[in-house]
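lol forgot to send this yesterday, sorry. struct tokens for the thing we talked abt
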């Protein structure tokens, strides 16, 4: 099963660190992924998905909100939390325990790092390589009032999922092969936040607790990562995703992306 392992740090912490400390944290993360990959190859595992994404600073983030069927653009992430997501990994594991063990090991880099491990219910990956070198990547994170969504009839929740799939299909259709438009649409729908596990440093060791790392009414229900020419274009796709009154889509630049697929 695929799991999303999200890394969060105190807001603005990265702005206070020098380049060497930041690079050391990235190298530690890369080393953990390299060791896991080598172990998987030695074991002969197939169907392997590795995705590792680093996000840009929160000051470059714009949130699109649907309020009364009007699309509002607000600077900054949503909701405001003490800790800010800096990136995430998507990895196949045989069990939830294996995912948590990896997160515990990988998160030894520094005590301020908080990890959230959450199962992925649905995952899409659509890519067109034409023009990608000139494109920019953006993360479009769906933020929702989970209790309100879960109170909806199953048919309406299915309709929401199909709408997001339809926007993805529209994006793909807009990237004609002869036009050589950059194309990348990665979509994931997460399991409910009650199934999340959070790992943080406490009393000299790593402690695992139930639930997401931030206790807020709105939680991440899913995400899309897309290639587009500019943040303005990314915002147009965010507006399409924010179809219902109350929807919020956080748009944030991707600072780097690394992926492996082994069949």
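and heres what i got for the seq, position by position
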């Amino acid at each position: 099963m695929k799991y999303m392992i999200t890394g969060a740090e105190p807001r603005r912490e990265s702005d206070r660190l020098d380049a060497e400390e930041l690079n050391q944290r990235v190298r530690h993360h890369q080393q953990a992924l390299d060791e896991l990959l080598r172990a998987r190859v030695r074991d002969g595992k197939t169907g392997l998905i590795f995705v590792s994404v680093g996000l840009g600073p929160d000051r470059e983030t714009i949130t699109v909100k649907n309020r009364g069927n009007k699309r509002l653009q607000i600077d900054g992430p949503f909701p405001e939390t003490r800790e800010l997501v800096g990136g995430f990994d998507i990895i196949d594991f045989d069990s939830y325990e294996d995912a948590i063990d990896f997160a515990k090991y990988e998160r030894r880099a520094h005590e301020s790092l908080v990890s959230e491990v959450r199962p992925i219910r649905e995952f899409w990956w659509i890519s067109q390589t034409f023009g990608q070198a000139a494109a920019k990547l953006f993360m479009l994170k769906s933020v929702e009032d989970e209790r309100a969504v879960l109170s909806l009839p199953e048919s309406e929740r299915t309709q929401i999922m199909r709408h997001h799939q339809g926007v993805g299909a529209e994006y793909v259709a807009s990237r004609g092969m002869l036009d050589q438009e950059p194309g990348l649409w990665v979509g994931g729908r997460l399991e409910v936040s009650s199934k999340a596990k959070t790992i943080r440093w406490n009393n000299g060791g790593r402690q695992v607790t139930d639930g997401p790392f931030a206790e807020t009414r709105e939680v991440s229900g899913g995400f899309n990562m897309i290639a587009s020419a500019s943040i303005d274009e990314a915002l147009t796709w965010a507006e399409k995703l924010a179809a219902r009154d109350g929807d919020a889509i956080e748009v944030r630049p991707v600072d780097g992306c690394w992926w492996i697929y082994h069949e």
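The first helix runs from residue 13 to 16. anyway ping me if u want another try
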